[in-house]
Design a protein that fits this description.
Number of helices: 23
Strand content: 15-25%
Shape: elongated
CATH superfamily of the largest domain: P-loop containing nucleotide triphosphate hydrolases
Radius of gyration: 27 Å
CATH class of the largest domain: Alpha Beta
Number of domains: 4
CATH architecture of the largest domain: 3-Layer(aba) Sandwich
CATH topology of the largest domain: Rossmann fold
Distance between the termini: 51 Å
Structural class: alpha/beta
Helix content: 40-55%
């Protein structure tokens, strides 16, 4: 079995080792044959750094590393250019001094080669960058390639630090401005990052960049398509299936459900998250690998501060096309950043509006699990939502235990939050029942004529109806009178109806009835 290149971001190391590789070099060729400076935005852990490293190897003329790949047949003339590859992920940025230190570290590596005197002067990093490009071009006789990976890392790490963020933004604006001023000495430029800070002055000065983040032509430049998955990882998929007692088709379907669905253009195929795919194939276990590498705490706080209604996640979210990549630091609309960060993705496009939703189960359940403690204020030490407890109760027929868990959620919600009564009840029901879908088939309905919630286990179907201005008896009667259970009567599973009443005074589930009694 081949090694999975988990965390391998160096193209040379990947090609010289026994690692699986999804050939993206046709994209590299199409990019590199142009002189246009590019920007590419993708979520974290999506292959941006490997792409930058691949471009570095290509422009350095390392033909031997591309043997057997698509670009070997496309490229007829391999030319070596001076390459300045700046990686801003190597430092932690709390203030502008951290930024200057990170830039200095990056510049020194290339100044030793092309401009040894530049690192010993008192010039700013901006002036040194400009001199480095000019000197490398003059000494090599060829124009320079500049690759800046994670260009936005300093900004995102200092996003909540006010003055520090402003100082970092100003310093980066000056530094990146060199790319425009030094155009006469440049052969190719690529900036990669997660967020396009289009309205914070940096990109206003880099208007020469071609943003390919939402280009159909380059939608598959990072990530793994369904065809690439089955074409490149057949043996690993078979081993994964055998380990989990699944057929090959069941294994591929499970991979698709959990990790597929990222779309980066109006019309493009879904892409698998490469980090989760590689970890799953290596461990032979299905888990939420990508989500565990970074939680959206900042996004959740922004949603709360901006009074964003999480119930919008229960339906497709729409956003004007002009706004999808328009993140404004400090703004009250988190949707662009949710999209750019990979928590939402494109599912449709109509009338100059994008339709967004969670890309897959890993993101849906991971993100909603982060929302639940933020909107229900679980006691310290009990922030995690143990959905398996709920499902265990239902599998055992313990409705009382299940409803007791529901009551505990409401009991810990401060008055100022649940004062919105019905709307907040709906939010808690939505979060709880959607998260149950990790372990059992769970649906939440809000349209007239459909049950509030349905949970299906192997042996039983539970139909829930909650009444804010009514009794448990009326809730049960409504289930029967409107035939909420009818779609589930075919087959031999038990059907259990649960009617519950919500009390405004206690702001909680007051009582419930179960039919038939179990």
């Amino acid at each position: 079995m081949r090694e999975m290149p988990i965390g391998i971001q160096d193209f040379k190391k990947l090609r010289n080792g026994n690692y699986a590789y999804v050939d993206k070099t046709a994209y590299v060729y199409n990019l590199a044959r142009l002189d246009t400076p590019f920007f590419l935005g993708r979520p974290r852990r999506f292959g941006k750094s490997l792409l930058a490293s691949t471009l570095k190897a290509y422009f350095e003329g390392k033909k031997e590393l591309f043997a057997g790949l698509a670009i070997e047949k496309l490229e007829k003339e391999w030319i070596s250019y001076p390459v300045i590859h700046i990686d801003l992920s190597i430092e932690t940025y709390g203030n502008v001094d951290d930024l200057r230190s990170g830039l200095d570290t990056n510049l020194r590596r290339f100044e030793k080669v092309w401009n040894p005197d530049g690192q010993t002067t008192d010039k700013t990093t901006t002036a040194r960058f400009y001199d480095l490009i000019q000197t490398a071009c003059e000494k090599s006789g060829r124009n320079v390639v500049v690759l800046i990976d994670e260009y936005d890392r300093p900004l995102t790490q200092a996003m909540e630090r006010g003055k520090a963020n402003d100082e970092i933004r100003s310093a980066l604006k000056s530094f990146y401005g060199v790319l425009k001023a030094a155009d006469q000495w440049l052969r190719f430029v690529l900036l990669t990052g997660v967020t396009k800070f289009s309205k914070v002055s940096i990109f206003s000065d880099l208007n020469m960049l071609r943003d390919i983040s939402m280009s159909e032509q380059y939608a598959g430049v990072c990530g793994i398509s369904a065809k690439e998955l089955v074409d490149n990882f057949g043996p690993e998929l078979e081993a994964l299936g055998e380990h989990n007692d699944m057929t090959y088709d069941e294994t591929v379907a499970e991979m698709k459900k959990r990790y597929d669905g990222y779309r980066f253009a109006k019309r493009s195929e879904g892409m698998f998250n490469p980090f989760s795919v590689l970890n799953t194939l290596a461990d032979r276990e299905f888990a939420y690998y990508w989500f565990k590498t970074g939680t959206p705490t900042f996004l959740v706080e922004q949603m709360k501060q901006g009074n964003f209604d999480p119930l919008r996640f229960s339906e497709n979210i729409t956003i004007p096309a002009r706004s999808i990549d328009d993140y404004r630091a400090g703004g009250d609309n988190p949707i662009p950043l949710l999209y750019q960060s990979g928590y939402l993705t494109i599912t449709g496009y109509e009338k100059d509006r994008y339709i967004l939703d969670f890309p897959n189960e890993e993101v849906r359940y991971g993100f909603l699990n982060e929302l639940l403690p933020a909107y229900t204020y679980r006691p310290q030490g009990h922030e995690e939502f143990f959905a398996d407890y709920f499902v265990d109760d239902l599998r055992a027929g313990n409705v009382g235990g299940f409803m007791g868990h529901m009551r505990s959620f409401f009991a810990n919600i401060p008055y100022e939050l649940n004062d919105q009564t019905e709307r907040h009840y709906q939010l808690v029901f939505y979060l709880v029942f959607t998260l149950l879908g990790q372990y059992a088939r769970a649906e939440v309905h809000s349209a007239m004529g459909r049950a509030d919630a349905v949970v299906e286990t192997k042996d039983t179907v539970y139909v829930f109806e909650f009444k804010l201005n009514g009794t448990a008896e009326e809730a049960l009667k409504q289930i029967d009178s409107k035939d909420y259970a009818l779609p589930y009567e075919a087959g031999d599973r038990n059907i259990v109806k649960i009617g519950a009443e919500l009390d405004k005074a206690t702001r909680n589930i007051e009582r419930w009835l179960v039919s038939p009694q179990i």
